[in-house]
Automatic annotation (TrEMBL):
It catalyses: D-fructose 6-phosphate + L-glutamine = D-glucosamine 6-phosphate + L-glutamate. Its main location: cytoplasm. Transmembrane segments: none annotated. Residues 43-182, 215-356 form the SIS domain. It is an enzyme of class 2 (transferase). This is Glutamine--fructose-6-phosphate aminotransferase [isomerizing]. GO terms for biological process: carbohydrate metabolic process; fructose 6-phosphate metabolic process; protein N-linked glycosylation; UDP-N-acetylglucosamine metabolic process. The gene is glmS. Keywords: Aminotransferase, Cytoplasm, Glutamine amidotransferase, Repeat, Transferase. Homodimer. GO terms for cellular component: cytosol. It is found in: Cytoplasm. It comes from the Bacteria.
Length: 366
């Protein structure tokens, strides 16, 4: 039930501290912080020695896949490719028995993702899924499944499933990094200790919900948005744009921030707001200069920044503040205000957020 919440989507956004926690602690020993994936043992060797990992997925789960690409390549140094399942399955891709094909799916039933897995399996690849539904088709058919424990997701727009997927992928990357000797036990421990704080960090962001709602009031008449992010926050720009599109029917595009110059900058004017994810990392200065370029063309800016931000707050029209965490862990934190923003814009516009027009929760036909 929705309990005290007006919509399932809002309830599911607010459940994230506990769904992230449940997911983490299903794969993490609380006492010694060791990461473990049940039944992975026989596959572990294959995974550790994999020549590459190909992630196949759709929609929001595809965005979790890009986060996975960045984290796995950074920590485990295994080449990762992220593919739209629909494109992958039809283009005669090159797959070998040394490949690991990993599906990321909330439902475990998405037709294109399932077909991509079956195709890969037939080519001899090892198949792996990250699923939220126990015993779903993908979980049954894959060589190995790591579950997310987000609980049933009712709202059509995926929120808590996404952060749970990113949590699993992060733990997996750390474990692979350790097994492959690409990261030290020390780095792994410090990441794990920080990961454990994410539920309370996310909870803390909810204190800004009223502010996010008041900012949303300015954008109910807006027809188009640009979302920019860089590095590990690039997929969060895509996800912020997708959330806004699907529940508020406002056109939105997510771009890697540096790509702005290669086209989208032509669109910038007073009526086109840009959402810039500018939490502190090595790209911060570059994002500040992107913001200045937007401002110089009179484009309004909403920026997701850290609480101790010093520069973006002077450039942006509005900021959504989030606590500062390590670069690798920023996606789970940065996505929260964007979920809330799209929710509030949609509600203020009178849209049916739990059942947006034309969308199905699980796309089991092509
Ligand atoms: C977006 C959304 C969809 C799904 C996509 C994949 O909010 O819900 O884009 O992410 O249909 O679904 P799963 O993860 O069930 O394979």
């Amino acid at each position: 039930s929705k309990g005290d919440y007006e919509h399932y989507m809002l309830k599911e956004i607010f459940e994230q501290p506990s769904t992230i926690k449940n997911t983490l602690f299903s794969h993490l020993n609380l006492e010694n912080s060791n990461i473990h994936f049940e039944n992975l043992d026989e596959l572990k060797e294959k995974l550790v020695k994999a020549s590459r990992i190909i992630i196949v997925s759709c929609g929001t789960s595809w965005h979790a896949g890009i986060v996975g690409e960045y984290i796995i390549e950074e920590l485990a140094r295994i080449p990762v490719e992220v593919e739209y399942a629909s494109e992958f399955r039809y283009r005669n891709p090159i797959i070998t028995k040394d490949d690991i094909v990993m599906a990321i799916s909330q439902s475990g039933e998405t037709a294109d993702t399932l077909a991509a897995l079956r195709y890969s399996k037939a080519q001899g690849a090892t198949t792996f899924s990250i699923c939220n539904v126990f015993n779903s088709s993908m979980a049954r058919e894959c060589d190995f499944t790591a579950y997310t424990y987000a609980g049933a997701e009712i709202g059509v727009a995926s929120t808590k499933a996404f952060t749970a997927q990113v949590a699993v992928v992060s733990l997996l990357a750390i474990q692979l990094g350790l097994e492959r000797n690409e990261i030290t036990q020390e780095r792994a421990n410090s990441l794990v200790e920080e990961i454990k704080t994410l539920p309370s960090v996310v909870n803390h962001i909810f204190n800004t919900d009223e502010h996010i709602k008041s900012v949303a009031k300015n954008y109910t008449q807006t027809t188009s948005f640009l979302f920019l992010g860089r590095g590990i926050n690039f997929p969060i720009a895509l996800e912020g744009a997708l959330k806004l599109k699907e529940i508020s029917y406002i056109h939105a595009e997510g771009y890697p921030a540096a790509e702005m110059k290669h086209g989208p900058i032509a669109m910038i004017e007073e009526s086109l707001p840009t959402v810039i994810i500018a939490t502190n990392n090595e790209y911060y200065d570059k994002l500040v200069s992107n913001a200045q370029e937007v401002k110089a063309r009179k484009g309004p800016i909403i920026a997701v920044v850290n609480e101790d931000d010093s520069e973006m707050i002077h450039t942006a029209d509005f900021v959504f503040k989030v606590p500062r965490v390590s670069d690798m862990l920023q996606p789970i934190v940065a996505v929260i205000p964007l979920q809330l923003f799209s929710y509030h814009v949609a509600v203020l516009k009178g849209c049916n957020v739990d059942q947006p027009r034309n969308l199905a929760k699980s796309v089991t036909v092509e």
